[in-house]
Design a protein that fits this description.
6 strands; Lambda_DNA-bd_dom_sf; alpha/beta; 434 Repressor (Amino-terminal Domain); Helix-turn-helix domain-containing protein; 13% strand; 12 helices; globular; 274 residues
Length: 274
């Protein structure tokens, strides 16, 4: 058990063992990072259990620490149910104290209803099988449980108005999805802002963006495209991403006006006005 009473996860045990072996080898995080060919911040995330090394990084860690394949072998036991390019992000969500997300065309995964998520997976997989889609929906909606716990993160959500207008799953599914977001915003569970079409070009027009901050480690940024994802911990890139987020937020509607626009869009979907 950890000092706060919560059990250690397998990833946390992996990270703690890495820190123990690194210290025993007389290496700083910076010295180990140099041999692994990564940033010291990434070593910090490994040791905190927030991220797992790639097989190549684990192999280099074993060489640097003289651990004879120990960390590479253990890594195989920590398989994830998420796609490779998203697994680290899902783990970080569980540890973050602040999540700031921007969505360009789709509702962020943490906020999706079952019906909305199902419609997306069916669109992604034209030859889908029902049981596969069911499992995908369960995995996605389980992520949202991080918002229900006593240590839940502060959540800021910035939506391009295109998210409200693209009808996913039909009028009723879309209306329910938007009302869920508005209800959460009015309940104080998230801070909501909409970037309206009338704002024109904005600083995040090229990609979705998620920023995550932690109590005892450096922040990270995540951007995603088709079948790709890039998790960034380089301080310069994270700072650049945060500036872009702040600029876009400055062009957005207020929280109150954003909730009103989301509710209005829900009504329009439900009554076939889109």
């Amino acid at each position: 058990m950890r000092a706060n009473g919560r059990p250690r996860t397998a990833r946390q045990k992996y990270g703690e063992e890495l820190k123990l072996r690194r210290t025993a080898a007389g290496l700083t995080q910076e010295a180990l990072a140099e041999q692994v060919v990564c940033s010291p911040t990434l070593i910090s995330h490994y040791e905190a259990g927030r991220r797992l090394p790639s097989p190549d990084d684990a192999r280099r860690i074993d060489r640097a620490l003289g651990t004879d394949g120990f960390f590479e072998r253990w890594l195989k036991d920590l398989e994830t149910k998420y796609d490779e390019n998203f697994a680290a992000v899902a783990e970080l969500e569980q540890q973050a104290v602040l999540i700031q997300q921007f969505a360009l065309t789709l509702v962020p995964g943490l906020l999706q209803t079952d019906g909305y998520a199902r419609a997306l997976f069916q669109a992604y997989k034209p030859n889908h099988r029902r049981e596969e889609v069911d499992q995908d929906v369960v995995i996605r909606t389980e992520r949202a449980r991080v918002l229900d716990g006593p240590m839940n993160p502060v959540l800021w959500t910035l939506l391009d108005e295109a998210v409200l207008r693209r009808r996913v799953g039909g009028p009723q599914v879309m209306a329910r999805q938007l009302r869920k977001i508005a209800d959460m915003a009015e309940a104080g569970r998230l801070r909501l802002h909409v970037l309206p079409f009338e704002a024109g070009a904005h600083s995040l027009q090229q990609s979705l963006l998620t920023l995550m901050s932690f109590a005892d480690s450096a922040p990270v940024a995540y951007v995603e495209g088709f079948q790709t994802g890039n998790l960034m911990d380089d301080p310069r890139l994270v700072a650049f991403s945060r500036t872009a987020y702040d600029l876009a937020l400055g062009d957005a509607l207020s929280h109150q006006k954003s909730v009103a626009r989301v509710r209005a869009a829900a009504e329009e979907h439900e009554h076939g006005q889109q």
